[in-house]
Each structure stands twice: as structure tokens, then as C-alpha cells.
Design brief:
six-stranded mixed β-sheet
Amino acid sequence: MQSKFLSIHGSYNGLDISLFSDQNLLENVSKIDLRASSGLIQAIDSLLTKHKLNFKDLNFIAVDKGPGAFTSLRVTLATVNGIAFDKKIPLIGISGLEALVEQAVAENLDLIIGEISIAVALLNAYNNDVYFLISKINDSDGKFPSTGLRISCVDESAPSLRSDELRRAGRGACAPKPWRRSKLVEPFQRIHQLRNRFVILEQASQKIDLLLNKIKTDFENHKIFFCGQGMQLHEKLIRMSLCDQAIIFENVPSFASSKTIGLMAYECWQNKENIVDQIEPLYLKTQYFAIKK
């Protein structure tokens, strides 16, 4: 019997919901709006009704548990926890940073193989802070396993990138406009094939300048692949600080999609891992409030 489930991303200023049957995506809906998370229940009801489903048909709900913007993350998780409690639906929470780095690597796999060993996902933590995840792309046997993914260029007339072109593409402040990347047509259906290639080295929050100094020191002889909305926000500083070390491609994902969150959660469901009744937010940063006397 197939497992039906929802996957939800709503940790910043948008809402992204996917409905799955096993690993197959039935439909994805998204909305970019500062108040999008407050319309979560209505969006879910509409999506389920369209597919002639209701909450009792769901085996579980997957959700990006953060880190993210405090208000959006709190509203999203409070809503999901409330639904789960009322409808007795199991939950699976996925780190948005882990999902982001896996999605970004999968989408750029043809450029990364044999070239890059460290991947860094960055999200905005405000006030020049970033949420970050540093991961090692484990390529100890010299190559990635065959994924069976079909590859096509974003621009069919554009030539493939060779190793020397890849190095020029990431030359930080010295580089011209980033090269257009080749894109995996089906990254989500096969992303689990790459999961054993990631080793998380650190996941926390820090001032962006301090983090870049740390990365430059700790990974002096490595090319660093960056992704995420935090990378886009601080791209100029990253290029100035790391120059040749920084590898930045066009159109890398800003956030993990609900599709990626869903696929990772489905793997957990199959393995009976991380299944809970309530999800706690992954903040990685303490929120301070000034109290007026």
C-alpha cells in the first residue's frame, strides 16, 4: 500500500508544499508572501481536496524544522504540530540546511565530481549572522556512484565545462559572470543515492566574516562549494575573502524545496527513523528581546 504524505517548507517568507505518494510527487504548490505561513491550513485543505484526500489518508507529514526566520518557523511548526495532535498524524522533521546542501550538490553533480570536497550551505540569520552547515563530500574511492540521472544543459547551445573552466568559474572577485551550470533533470527521485557521501562537519550560526576566516584557515587547500540564500546575500564578501577557493554557480537553490524535504523524510519513514509526535524547531541561534521598563 502506498504511503501518502505532505512535505512542507515555511521557514522564511514563503510557503512550499508538496503532496507525495511514496517517492512520487503528486503536486507542488508554493507562494511567496511574508504572511504565507499563516495560510498553511487553508493551502493544505485545498491541496488535499483537489486530490480527493483528507487528513486520515496521510501516513505522515514532513516539515523543514529550521533553522530559519523565527516568526515564520514558529508559525509553521505550531500549525503542523497542531494538525498532528488533532488528527493523530506522525511527523518527521528535516534540517533545512542538510536538505539544502544535498539538493544543491545533486543539482550540480556533473560539475562537482572529482573537483570539490567541501560544501557549505548558508541561510540568513540577520544582523550579518548566518546559519551554516559545512559538509565533506566523501569521495574516498575517487568517484561518485552511478546515479542513473539524465543530464541536460540549461542552455543547450552552451558547451560543457571542463576542469580548467570550472576553476575559472569560481575565481571569486577575479571571476566574470558565473558559468551556466548543467542541471540534473531528476535530482529529487535519486538524491538518496548520494546521502552516504555527506559527512556533516559543523552546523551552527556565526558572523559571516568570522565564518569565512574560519573556512579559509580550516580548508586552505580545498575548493569550497557554496549554496543557499545566505550565499546570495553575502556573495561579494565570500568572493573577496576566499577568491580562488570559492565555487559559486548560477541558480543554486536559495532554500531546500519541499520536494527534497519530502524525499529525505520518506527515506526516514521507510527506515522507521526520526518519527515523532511533535517537532521542536532547530534554531541554532538564541533570540534576544529587549524588555522595556
